[in-house]
Amino acid sequence: xxxxxxxxxxxxxxxxxxxxxxxxxxxxxxxxxxxxxxxxxxxxxxxxxxxxxxxxxxxxxxxxxxxxxxxxxxxxxxxxxxxxxxxxxxxxxxxxxxxxxxxxxxxxxxxxxxxxxxxxxxxxxxxxxxxxxxxxxxxxxxxxxxxxxxxxxxxxxxxxxxxxxxxxxxxxxxxxxxxxxxxxxxxxxxxxxxxxxxxxxxxxxxxxxxxxxxxxxxxxxxxxxxxxxxxxxxxxxxxxxxxxxxxxxxxxxxxxxxxxxxxxxxxxxxxxxxxxxxxxxxxxxxxxxxxxxxxxxxxxxxxxxxxxxxxxxxxxxxxxxxxxxxxxxxxxxxxxxxxxxxxxxxxxxxxxxxxxxxxxxxxxxxxxxxxxxxxxxxxxxxxxxxxxxxxxxxxxxxxxxxxxxxxxxxxxxxxxxxxxxxxxxxxxxxxxxxxxxxxxxxxxxxxxxxx
Length: 451
Ligand code: PA5
Prior knowledge:
This protein has 16 helices and ten strands. The protein has 451 residues and is an alpha/beta fold. α4 (89-98) packs antiparallel against α11, α5 packs parallel to α6 (151-174) and α15 crosses α16. The longest helix has 24 residues, at 151-174. 5-phosphoarabinonic acid (PA5) binds at residues 84-87, 145-147, 150, 153, 207-209, 292, 420, 423.
């Protein structure tokens, strides 16, 4: 029996669901599991992510290390990672989870450059402030766009590129730019080839939100100084574990339970809960994965998130007593990698001596358990997804687990997990409003509508 790295606990749903209903959804999830692995479902030309953990060659990792070392040799202390959606959330999630919470304030950064993200918005203030930083520092840039045509990263890249060329001249700039894009098509591919940028490929059969385990996620995470081999090892072991079909498979259990809660109990909102601020961006990555994969055909669970205990003092009231539309998935971390004990104080003016000698994490665990019981009493079913600790290996496990479970869950729901046709609607309007060549008819129509 293989050791399953991500564990799931459904006992917080027991008082809400009948086991006979669960069996029905389990059967559907098992059929969806077969569909996913047989490649017989909708969007099956986008299944390349299934094997990504084992696909990355050691020679490619060595090339990334060479980029890291050559930038270090130039004194690069800032890397701007440009991308949006699946082209940045995986890297950001890992870097936020693995970094020291105060790395910006600490002087010793272990010789690694600071990583900042851009191209995920069109805020002029953000870009202006980014350029204030870039101008002061010794910067390099990784620009990521699978299509190579997305407006937000293209705008940010044009501005960063121009700055690097002014500062280091064109050939100096090209040594500081890496592009990750399609193998053959798109404006970024053309630009990268003409300028001679070092380029890496987003495989054709891997969609943006399933791309964290290819260069899209792996290169920025490596540049930030983290052990990407451990991420890939965790993902590979999780993959092995998830290949065994059955009712104990945690991806099947997750898919079955969330579909049951949604379809039979009307729980339309799933809240990803964590009790560590380091996991805030994990929830952002997860929200994009599930929101874009399932929210279509007028179906889908709305993915939301909270970070406790902070949000127990903001969203906690609603979750406890507001409209009963939600269930929670708690991302539970079994142990802290740092230890801080609460001391004792003879005066006990703050009345905390009852906690003397306790670890802070013990208090966090009790807050988590107390919240679980309270929310179940308040009518909120709770699933728990457990990992041992927040490190590269376990993040790799989590990435693979949630991607795989997403495929199973979306097929259980009956939607294509791998397309995102709805994302085009805003783009068409924006291009029409910006008078993009080729959109003349839409521009006229939208102006008439707004008149
Ligand atoms: O998951 C997806 O496919 C999307 O979120 C894309 O990653 C996002 O729209 C960015 O696209 P691109 O990488 O083509 O710029």
